[in-house]
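thought: fold this chain, then report.
action: predict
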Amino acid sequence: MPLTVSIGQYSDTGARPHNEDFHGAATPASAQLAAKGVMLAVADGVGGHAGGREAAESAVRSVLSDYYATPETWGVADALNRVILPLNRWVQTHGARNRDTAGMATTLSILVLRGRRYTVAHVGDCRVYRLGAGGLQQLTTDHVWDLPNMRHVLKRAIGLDSQLQVDFSEGELSAGDVFALLSDGVWEPLGQRGIHQVLELFHNPQMAAADLIRRARLLGGQDNATAVVARVDAPGEDSYTDLVAEARHLVLPPRLKPGERLDGFEVVALLHESRTSLLYQVRNTANGRLCVLKTLQSRLAGHAESCAALLNEEWLGRRVISQYFIQVLPPQEGRSCLYYAMSWHPGATLQEKLDAGWHFTVSQAVDIGVQLAKGLGALHRLNIIHRDIKLANLHLGDDGRLRIFDLGVAAVAGSAEVTAEGNPGTPSFMAPELLSGHKAGAQSDVYAAGVTLYCLLTRRFPYGEVEPFQHPRFGKPALPSRHRPDIPQWLESIVLKAIASNPSGRFETAEELLFALETGERKPIFAPPRAGLAGDSLRRWQWIAVVSILMNAILLYLWMALR
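observation:
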């Protein structure tokens, strides 16, 4: 069921010459409604001349447009924060360039209703209230100085300071919840009791918004007054939950043979079979194109966790639009079984090529590293961590293009799936911190990319092969040039930095790795200090020097005493 919300908005200038408040709401169409939700915003501008109004209007219009341009894989709070912080810099810079807008700033309170949850982003002294089963609750804190005669002076606002801290809060939605976003020209004269009375009295949000302003005026309010009221008629589901709900009735297909048909696909061959999944090469009977169909082993028909993981993989894959990834195709209309289809590209995985005796030159390995870093960069910008980068999950097409596939254990950073317990992945490619129970992140994907390059060049693992449930000790990796003398020093330094056992010595981002590979020997980097040489050995000689000085001092003292 889609989220259904009724909205009312009202604003009044009052006794002031200009209305420096600005407000807005966005209610997108069904697909974007499920992915991004409904947004409401109220801003109260401050500053001379028209600066306050300009700041307030720019803030509201920017967040209402820019938020919906962010990737669906970003969390609501993360997306809002990435939109608000550049806005803060723009308001501050714009105000400093023009004498008429000097000191312009604005408060900003945002409410996003998505699926079954709400998120509030807030800075300044507008307020967000929620009327639910537990009564009226104020969801925001005023960012003003808590001193007599200074309670109208803002401590935080958009454009007030280069370093902006935004308050975020969130919670569960229920049918009948009423939210009110109010400027200080409304909440100050009315108080909490007056606001509660109006929101309880009117079922129609537009009538409630208008009556809030009317009562604020009757109680002597002279300031600009703005109210945006929203009533949740029915909470919805998020897009992934919708996908699961739509596919809940689907069953796993039986094992398919070449020539058999399924929903407009004709099976050509079985490409791969694992303990849990099956990959078929199929032909779309409508257009004749070859593609790949992925499903689960039929014995997992009643295994809800495995089915949900396949749907999660499909959901993430649809949102990763990049030339460095296998593309997930739109589902067939009237899909009768649980599977999804991907684009087909002739070629082989890097593991298959190595197993077939393929020898990668240094130039080829660098090119693969560049493409891999670009692909990981695109993935991480969507806030997705792959968590299983390895040779077998990297496909080198006959067109020379590297493509990353298998998002089966991928997860959105910061989501419930990214925990410190039971990190998925292939042990030999997993960063040491993951084996110690830390959460996966961009740096652990970068480490796996470094191990991949090391293996491409040497056919060995830098710290030896790691078996499942093994707890290895990471010392110093063997230099790649020891196994392959033609590896240049600059490339060896890059690989060693990528596979550094301590994350502090590793590339922080895929873009940093990409820059190092692209600049190559023109801007060589230094490899991280090798444990046992720069560390233990130096400390050993320091202790020897100290002991030597003490012994010399004792001998000198004895010699002087004997004289």
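thought: worth noting. Residues 64 and 207 are 24 Å apart (CA to CA).
final: tokens above.
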